[in-house]
Design a protein that fits this description.
This protein is an alpha/beta fold and 277 residues long. The protein has two domains: 64 residues, no CATH class; 191 residues, Rossmann fold. The chain contains ten helices and ten strands.
């Protein structure tokens, strides 16, 4: 058997050239994203586009906007589930919801919402805690295709076995099937949930704060940024939070070494939930 060819090496110079071209031509800024993670995903992109080098892919992208639209799937991370990391949602339900119940109205921000699963998970949780009717959830991402999928609220029905396990482990009070209608291999989430969520484009790398919120959930996003962009993003999240508002991060993320750490206290350290001082 002929061994499979080794994956191509991507140099820093090639990566910088591609990201500069993306920024100049399409106004998406990935230049401060973690290089090692981007390189891994771009190796997969080279195989998908059947390009021998990143330079060849850059030339194709310059000439064809459709290539860039497809390339965005590799430049952004779109991995999520309903109630992913159920212990995080259980901690929100048990520890943070009692604080949120003291507000007459609520605004929440899911930063880096991908295809919407986390935003819908929060909507279900808030519905069960009788808070959804007075809540506006802002769910943002930089990938327009992901936002379209999120807005539709339609997911493959075979994913719902795992989603249901997560929901129950997160402290769900009913059955997840109460929140969707299954048909022809797909599941459509309830309109009550959609009504509370505004999906829109927003970049933590280039955009500014758009609202004051009581809770920001920004999970598994910072790990893809370099240190400088992490500091910018956390500063933005801090600015968006009201006094004593809450910030939730991913299980592999922390504020411990951030310049903004003194502005927060740990509320549920094991699940990376912080409160603005």
């Amino acid at each position: 058997m002929t061994p499979a060819p080794a994956p191509p090496d991507i140099s820093d110079r090639e990566l910088d050239s591609l990201l500069d071209a993306v920024y100049r031509q399409y106004h998406y800024d990935f230049r401060s994203y973690a290089a090692a993670s981007l390189k891994r995903r771009l190796v997969a992109a080279l195989g998908h586009f059947q390009c021998p080098t990143l330079g060849a892919l850059e030339r194709q992208m310059r000439d064809d906007a459709g290539t860039f639209t497809e390339l965005l799937r590799y430049l952004t991370v779109q991995v999520s589930d309903l109630f992913r990391d159920p212990e995080y949602f259980r901690a929100l339900r048990e520890t943070i919801v009692p604080y949120l119940q003291t507000y007459p109205s609520l605004k929440l921000w899911v930063a880096g919402c991908a295809s919407g699963e986390e935003a819908y998970s929060l909507a279900i949780l808030l519905h069960e805690e009788e808070l959804l009717e007075r809540t506006q959830i802002y769910a943002t991402d930089i990938n327009p295709e992901s936002l379209r999928l999120a807005q539709d609220g339609v997911y493959a029905v075979d994913r719902f076995s795992k989603f249901s396990e997560n929901y129950l482990a997160a402290g769900g009070k009913a059955s997840l099937s109460d929140y969707y209608t299954a048909r022809y291999g797909s599941a459509l989430l309830d309109r009550r949930l959609k009504k509370a969520i505004l999906f829109s484009d927003h970049s933590l790398a280039t955009d500014s704060v758009f609202a004051e919120v009581q809770l920001v959930s920004c999970r598994n996003v910072l790990i893809y940024f370099d240190r400088q962009l992490q500091e910018r993003a956390v500063g933005l999240l801090h600015e968006a939070l009201c006094r004593r508002g809450f910030l939730g991060l991913g299980s592999k993320e922390t504020l411990r070494f951030s310049l903004h750490a003194p502005a927060f206290r740990e509320v549920v350290p094991e699940h990376r939930i912080y409160q603005k001082l």
